[in-house]
Every structure is written in structure tokens, then in C-alpha cells.
Design a protein that fits this description.
CATH class: Mainly Beta
Distance between the termini: 84 Å
Number of domains: 1
Structural class: mainly beta
CATH topology: Porin
Order of helices and strands: HHHEEEEEHHEEE
Helix content: 10-25%
Radius of gyration: 37 Å
Number of helices: 5
CATH architecture: Beta Barrel
Largest sheet: 8 strands, antiparallel, barrel
Strand order of the largest sheet: 1-2-3-4-5-6-7-8
Length: 249
């Protein structure tokens, strides 16, 4: 009888130490020593390495690690359509620009813009019924860009461009009725003849990032042109969208 009781007590102690599968009691939160001995389920352990966390779930922020960026938008520019015209004129148009980034700071930029507006003439234009006439410029240029400041929200670039502008000043003269006499000439009403001149721009741009690859850009500049006998300075500002692509190695 005593042997049977001893055997029963030994079996009960063994079950207490090694419960059958699925029958173990749920462990309640206890001391820190108990928690430290608890093993977390697979995939639920905290990630202690920032590098590992980035590899598992990359942060979607702007890195400026792209090789190219393209800009397209609208632009405003003023100018002067004749050497002796007393007033400047305003033009509006479009601009396209591409930059190939050599590294994180320096890039090579190509730019094209087309501008059009109306300009007042000398008083001699009134005898022909010409008051304000249309003028146009087609501008091609290239140069260098420098990324001066950058963070996840915005970037500031500086640039210098040089190229040529083809001015079309005689739209109204060519369109003047041929059956009327006398016929006006460009010089008589104060306009330049159509021709190409050296052109340059110095300025900057600020990009406000909307996604890692897209940004909204605002770009003010000082313009230099030489349609007349001297170099003159004007103002330009553009605005539009920037798209970045092609990761640098």
C-alpha cells in the first residue's frame, strides 16, 4: 500500500513539472526575471538594428541619389524689343530642363524655353495703326548646376547657363496689309531685326518635395542678352514640376 502511494505521488510531481502538450497554464505577467525568460513568437521580437529595420521596411524619403532630373513648367520673362524703345515688355511661355548629376552636388544642365509677349512701339508706329505688337524668343542654353542645400523636405540649387536666343520681332510687320502704302519697317517703329544673340542666365531654384521622386520647383533668374549694341539684364521666374530617376551607382 505504501509503495502504491509513493508511486502515485511521484507521477503527480512529474506531471506538474512536464505537463502534457497543450495543457500548460497560461503564464501571467510577473517579474522582469519571468519576462526575460519568455521567448517571443517568431517575427515578433523587436528589431534592434536600424540597418536591419531599413532593409525590412525602407523609409520612403527623398535621397537625391538619382542620376537625372527633368523639369517642365511655365515661365515669365521681361525684355526689350528695340534698342531705343522706352519701355520693356513682358513674355510668358514654357520651359523644359534636364540635369545629369555627376555626384551629389554638381550636375550638367541643358535648358530650352519659348517666350512670347507684346511690346509697345515708338510713336511712329501709330501712323500704321500699330500700338503693341507680338514678339517671340526661342532660347537654347546649357551650363552647370550646384546643389547647395538638401534635406528630406526641400533642396536649393544654383545654376549658370549660357547659350543663344533667336528673336522674332517682325510678326506685325510681315502681317501688315500689303495693299497699303507706305509699308512699315522694323527699324522705323523701333524694333530689332530678327536675329540670334548670345544669352545667359544666373539664378537658382528651390524644390519642395512631394514624393521621393517628385517635387514642385520655383526658379528665379537674372537674364543677360545682347540684341542691341550692349548687354542688358532682365528678370525671369519659372515654376513647374521636377521628376528624378535613374539611381547613381
Amino acid at each position: 500500500m505504501l509503495a502504491a502511494c509513493a508511486l502515485a505521488m511521484t507521477a503527480a510531481a512529474g506531471l506538474a513539472q512536464n505537463p502534457a502538450p497543450g495543457t500548460a497554464p497560461i503564464q501571467q505577467p510577473g517579474s522582469s526575471s519571468d519576462q526575460s525568460q519568455t521567448t517571443a513568437a517568431p517575427g515578433t521580437a523587436p528589431i534592434r538594428s536600424p540597418r536591419l529595420a531599413h532593409e525590412i521596411n525602407p523609409q520612403k524619403v527623398t535621397t537625391y541619389n538619382e542620376r537625372w532630373d527633368f523639369f517642365g513648367g511655365l515661365s515669365f520673362m521681361n525684355g526689350q524689343a528695340g534698342q531705343n524703345l522706352p519701355k520693356r515688355y513682358n513674355m510668358g511661355g514654357g520651359e523644359g530642363q534636364a540635369t545629369y548629376w555627376l555626384g551629389s552636388r554638381f550636375g550638367v544642365t541643358g535648358d530650352y524655353r519659348f517666350e512670347a509677349g507684346t511690346t509697345p512701339l515708338l510713336p511712329t508706329g501709330s501712323q500704321f495703326g500699330l500700338n503693341r505688337v507680338t514678339v517671340k524668343q526661342s532660347i537654347e542654353s546649357g551650363g552647370l548646376s550646384y546643389r547647395w542645400f538638401q534635406n528630406r523636405y526641400a533642396a536649393v540649387q544654383l545654376h549658370a547657363l549660357a547659350g543663344a536666343s533667336y528673336g522674332i520681332f517682325n510678326t506685325a510687320i510681315v502681317g501688315y496689309p500689303k495693299n497699303l502704302s507706305p509699308q512699315p519697317t522694323d527699324a522705323y517703329v523701333g524694333l530689332y531685326d530678327n536675329h540670334t544673340t548670345p544669352w545667359g542666365a544666373a539664378g537658382g531654384s528651390i524644390d519642395f518635395n512631394t514624393t521621393p521622386k517628385l517635387a514642385v520647383r520655383l526658379s528665379p533668374e537674372i537674364i543677360f542678352e545682347h540684341f542691341g549694341t550692349e548687354t542688358r539684364e532682365f528678370f525671369s521666374i519659372g515654376g513647374g514640376v521636377v521628376y528624378r530617376f535613374g539611381k547613381r551607382k
